[in-house]
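User: Could you walk me through two proteins back to back? I'd like the raw sequence and the structure tokens for each, with a short line separating them so I can tell where one ends and the next begins.

Assistant: Of course. Protein one, sequence then structure:
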Amino acid sequence: MPLSPQQQAEIDEQRQAPQQTLRAVSSGMEKHLYKAQPVLDHGFVRVIDYMGDDAAICQAARVSYGKGTKSVQNDEGLIRYLMRHWHSTPFEMCEIKLHVKLPVFVARQWIRHRTANVNEYSARYSILDREFYIPAPEHINAQSVVNNQGRGGVLEGAEAARVLEILKSDSNRAYDNYEAMISQDGPGGETQDGLARELARMNLPANVYTQWYWKVDLHNLFHFLRLRADAHAQYEIRVYADAICAMVADWVPAAYRAFEDYRLGGASMSGKALNCVRRMLKGEAVTQETSGMSKGEWREFQEVLTEKSE
């Protein structure tokens, strides 16, 4: 189960004791506080705390403008200007703290975003639960023949069943051995010391679940979401990013709309790619050979033009 009974009891107790505050409050985000959003088979994302809202972004931006300039443009227009011109510091005035339960191999991708504060559940002194990520059949894919770090078509029939059985049996066998190593009850009923938990954990597979608290400002969160909510991101981290996107859209709706437009829905082009677009607009038939791009660059350029025009 995603939440343990103890965690659920703590959440219920906290939700039953709301307190008044004079700080800025986002009504959209308030509904997410202490509610776990299920992700994958055993994972979740939940908001622990947040600071700031759309107004906080504008307040920070206008500090340098001086008194009397607030009427120059409305808040959403200002936020769109800031996003469009890559002004980052006003977005750093908002922060969010999340509680995330996720497979270890997803956590290893996630932790590459080093602009956050993280505290992870420690398997040095706590025992990990017997919970493993086992993909649904529709997410058992072959290796892509185009992208070395991507997926191809879905495996089917006997091959898919064989892979799923290997994943399940290996996970459970590893956990059985993990329990046996840390146990103080020997195989013959005798007492034994048991292996240290910090050593026994190394035998567990990368699909075992871990948990952490992850605190990040909005600018760096948008960077995370731009990469991980992208259609090309690995499915197992993308579903977490999608869940967070829904929360951020309720928290800072104007900022999220700008992010969705300029980052998620936008595209960055090289000088060569932009030159090709200009030539195409003039009616020229541009090919990979005349573009000045490599085959890989040209393929990605074509994908951008096709995806964004659909």
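----
Protein two, same layout:
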Amino acid sequence: MASANAVAFFFFVALLLPASLAQLSENFYDKTCPTLPNIVRAAVKKAIDSDVRAGAKLIRLHFHDCFVNGCDGSVLLVDAPGIISELNSPGNEGIQGLEIVDAIKADVERGCPGVVSCADILAQASKDSVNLQGGPSWRVLHGRRDSRIANKTGADANLASPFETLVQLKAKFAAVGLGTTDLVALSGAHTFGRSRCRFFSHRFSNFNNTGSPDPSLNPSYRQVLEGVCSAGPDTRANFDPTTPDVFDKNYYTNLKVGKGLLQSDQELFSTPGADTIAIVDSFADREGTFFKEFRQSMINMGNIKPLTGSSGEIRRNCARVNAARIGGEGHDVM
């Protein structure tokens, strides 16, 4: 009987262990890198001071990281032997900010060498990017480790497209465990930043082979955008034509008047009978409601399949895996 009890206890502990290892924590770096929040915030502020788009670039990297294999820093890996970079995926075409991540990582390494993962840096930098430009703050959960592999195929399939319908967007969010409120709240990150004309100019004429413009696109706004895009498909337009560099609720007020820049933005409000319409209305009515849900949705997204415990590694260089040691194991500098 004692032996049977011991076996039962072993399996009970084994069942609990994965959940324990996957648990991220607010105080993960309290002893090993207590200055991390200050280091990252200072670096993000420096980046925004020199490039107002820096915050939007950083949060986009975090989004695109978490939607492929979870929040593991894989989006930062460049092509190397055995690695086909996710940056080659159409969903990451034109993605920017890698040099900003490198600068933040360098500052963190000076203060806390070999301790903080690139995946955690993306999560922390995203919070600061939002907060420094007028948005909410939250306690970032830490403890993610960096992947030693990339997944371009996953990036091709899993990243949301600006050309997608609400049904398609919901499916991609559901695939990573995020719900409709998460979809609407996280889309609010488009309250700052820019997009290239090639991602929305299909709305100007012959939309979906109708021979007419996208009917959900405000006609006067369309004329403004057509003027901007006359300079070429790689010209950038503000996501938010009202307060383009401030993190606020105007993304949602814009949707209510047909001024969502991307088709995938406007789908949230203009899809007939959609349950997202009421959420857009609530966020447009009260900025505090949006901020509250955005904070929670960022935490939800940051919890997507993190590598923890002894999985993965702490990369010295966010763009490349650590040099392999004998036996082919990744060198762990923890």
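Residues 1-21, 326-334 have pLDDT under 50 and may be disordered.

Let me know if you want the two compared in more detail.
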